[in-house]
Predict the 3D structure of the following.
Amino acid sequence: MTDQRTLPVMRSASVLALACALLLPGVAHGAAARESTVIELTTLEVADGTQVTFSGEVVSEALRDGEDRVWLNVLDEGVAIGVNMPAEMAEKVSVFGDHRNDGDVVRVTGVYNEACRTHGGDMDVHAETVDVLEQGGERTLEPQAWKGVVGLLGLVAAFIGSRRLRRMRETV
Amino acid sequence: MWVAPQKRDARVIAHYTGILVVGVGLAMIVPLITAVSLGEWDAALDYLFGMGIACAAGMALALVSPPDQPLDRTNALIVTALAWFAASVTAAVPLAVSGNYASYLDALFDAMSGLTTSGLTLVQDLDHMAYSHNMWRHFLHLIGGQGIVVAAVSIAIGLRGGAVSLYIAEGRDEKILPNVMHTSRFIWFVTAVYVTLGTAALAGVNLFSGMEPTRAGLHAFWATVACYDTGGFGPQSMNALYYHSWAFEFVTVLLMIAGTLNFNLHADIWRGDRWEIFRNIEARAWAANVAILSAFAALGLGSTLLFSDTMSVLRKGVYHVLSANTGTGHQTLYTAQWVGDYGGLAMGAVILAMAFGGMASSTAGGIKSLRLGLIVKGVVLRVRESLAPSSAVVRAKFHHLTDRELTPTLLDSALLVFVLYMVTYISGALVGAAYGYPIGEALFESISATANVGLSTGVTSPAMPAGLKILYILQMWAGRLEFVALLTLFASLVISVRRKRSQRS
């Protein structure tokens, strides 16, 4: 038997339960999908040993770590972090960032180590998945001719000055 | 008596400063060749521009006075102090137009840091920087490490009248060979041997890591120069952490130690007198210093949760004590980890290692182990005097190249420099704290700048206040010249201004 007075309370509780069932997985999913940044990792804002997801540009080259693993250094907002992974996982990356190229932008998911025991205490991420978000490409580098003109004029002036200095030396 | 500089003095000073500035301009040929050979045409024009400005400005100064005028001791000190600043001002020009610096002040900061072999940096987007710009940054370590004057004297670029005075004024006291030109060339010869060996070893490590040959060679050369000249710049934003290699760290530690050895000791070893290094008070004081501070760092790291295993103690503890003590400043930690992860005792050991510094007549900075050794000897002497009968004559002897007696003059000189360093360390820390930085981090950074180390807790960044950038430039400059030359320059400026005022009134 249900008391008439408890009915509205039960109805409210049912609505609340339904709302929780529908909304909380969404909230939980949102939390899992939140990406970290390299700056957050390197400024110790993420707990040691947690799984993280972050994005950034791969710079310079893949560096060998033993027989079948490599390091990729991933740059974001001027700060880079080393990502350790199986060599075949790194094969997805085709362009590495340097003076001439912007490197591939990758999304890395892996375990964040504030001081990795297997790598001499280095801060790193051991990757579980790596996805290329954006293909890298050539950077626009335009030589500015005015610099060359000013430089050559300066060198000519210095040459004339050096001849004058030599004459002064001869007359002293 | 305070002697006011005359017009003739000013002209002679301008002439020699100008010659040294021309030398810096000519040195830009190295990054220019790098740029041309690697097809970095945008950067090549930066160096053509820089060369033109430096050579024209330097020559204009040189023409102010007839050449080969004699240079007295005071003027030599002023030229030396000015030359380091003028060299930085001109060396900064190609960096400032590279697009990797937010302002000319930031480029000047890096040029001063490069020449004084400090290694603190305000560069932006370093991972995309041209090879030629990295070549210049590291080449500045090479020129500054050996000394601007030593570099100029050894290639004989028009310093004839003032070579000896300038050599001494730069803080050099090596008389390894009969004249300064031969001694300067010997210093460069020793440097060339270490740089060749270091580059070969690190190139091997880099090739094994998978770098392509050109990059492997360039990175090896830069890391060698940065370590042997105890500079600390790196071509990647992650500094030494970029390489993820214990072999790389091991070779660089050997180079750091070679870089901190007194050139006189290098000469003795070269001549076959290997026992000198075991008898020398400076080498002993340095070894004791490093051993004690490494033990403290190990003890400190042992109490942390993160760095307590043996490998971490070696790679994060001893490595950073050596990097700090030799004045190199390579680091394998992120700046936030100094405060967040490293622990107070270990960080204290690194701070003391920076403050004490390596050996005199080397590329290292800081108070120097010879002075510390003499001060300790002096303290022991005082205690012995107190315990001895009043009629007894108590003496202290030490061995530094020859057997010598510890005189009050030697002890006073060591204490004076010690006090000047301590005052500068603390003053810089107080200014940093006044800008709002935590006092511990401000002290760390102030010592790092003054002792020309380059380790950073993150205070040094493009976003820091301009006033603090200028302060650190002054600290790096003063620390490299061990204060006397810079104080002479400022004193002569004050005297000149006063004299002009009194003439007007």
In short: The first helix of chain B runs from residue 7 to 27. Strands of chain B lie at 397-400, 402-405. Residues 7-172 of chain B form one domain.
